[in-house]
Design brief:
The chain is α/β, with parallel strands linked by helices and about 240 residues long. The protein folds into two domains: about 70 residues, Hypothetical PUA domain-like, domain 1 (Ribosomal Protein L25, Chain P), CATH 2.40.240.20; about 170 residues, SPOUT methyltransferase, trefoil knot domain (Alpha/beta knot, 3-Layer(aba) Sandwich), CATH 3.40.1280. Helix content is about 30%, strand content about 25%. It is built from seven helices and 13 strands. Strands 6, 7, 8, 9, 10, 11, 12 and 13 form an eight-stranded parallel sheet that branches. The chain is elongated. The two termini are about 25 Å apart.
Length: about 240
């Protein structure tokens, strides 16, 4: 396997890229790559380039870009909003949501949210690592936390918001194509509530919002991280880029 590394620098054939300390350490110490080893570098603006480890100077690895491989192609426009959860399942959710193609991750505080601190840098690190491993060329945007009420007030008029409703009042996820198939090309988002469920007032607020679609994820009680990944997988299968 050729290592893939996300690089913010401008990439082009013949360009030299000095990797930051963390990536230099990973490439030279963890993977034990030496001068001349093949490396892939990429970002959403310039695409992906095949290169080679050109030098190692005081722990800083320099990659020489050689051949252009491919341009970035946007996938389905899907966001994931979620009530913050504990660190280990949050790490997993950020990684797997990136693999499942989300463009944006945002923590949402609700009345029953238990975790009140969010490490955005950790979310970014997990998303970046997942993108490097799953062949994506872009990294999901990470937005700072907001309250549910504030987020709904500022919600984009053109974006549907699919909410996992643990009360069972929503439609089955599989019915989305029949009811909203004409909106396949529209922007979408998923919202996963806290492990204690949404407060009654929040459910009323969601039900009154014109862009909210409440859905059911079945009879079993799912953990928040499981619900997020299950909903993303179903959405990608019935409305997203898995249909291609």
């Amino acid at each position: 396997m050729i290592p893939r590394l996300y690089c913010k620098d401008n990439l082009s054939a013949g360009a030299s890229v000095t990797l930051p300390p963390s990536q230099s350490h990973y490439l030279t110490t963890v993977l034990r790559r030496t001068v001349g080893s093949a490396v892939l570098v990429f970002n959403e603006e310039n695409g992906e380039f095949r290169g080679a480890l050109d030098s190692i100077r005081k722990g800083a690895a320099v990659v020489l870009c050689q051949d252009f491989v491919r341009s970035a192609e946007p996938g389905a426009d899907i966001w994931l909003l979620f009530a913050p959860i504990k660190r280990t399942p949050a790490d997993l959710m950020a990684q797997k949501a990136t693999e499942l193609g989300v463009r944006l991750l945002q923590p949402i505080f609700t009345q029953h949210t238990i975790v009140n601190r969010v490490n955005l840098e950790r979310l970014r690190a997990n998303a970046l690592e997942a993108a490097e491993q799953c062949d994506r060329l872009d990294i999901p945007a990470i937005l700072p936390p907001e309250t549910l009420e504030k987020r709904l007030v500022s919600w984009p008029e053109d974006r549907w918001l699919v909410v996992a409703d643990e009360t069972g009042a929503g439609i089955p996820m599989a019915e989305l194509p029949a009811r909203y198939g004409a909106e396949r090309a529209a922007p979408w988002a998923l919202l996963i509530g806290p492990e204690g469920g949404f407060h009654g007032d929040e459910l009323k607020m969601l039900a009154a919002h014109p862009k909210v679609i409440r859905v059911s994820l079945g009879k079993r009680v799912l953990r928040a991280d499981t619900a997020a990944l299950a909903a993303l997988a179903v959405w990608q299968a019935v409305l997203g880029d898995w249909r291609a």
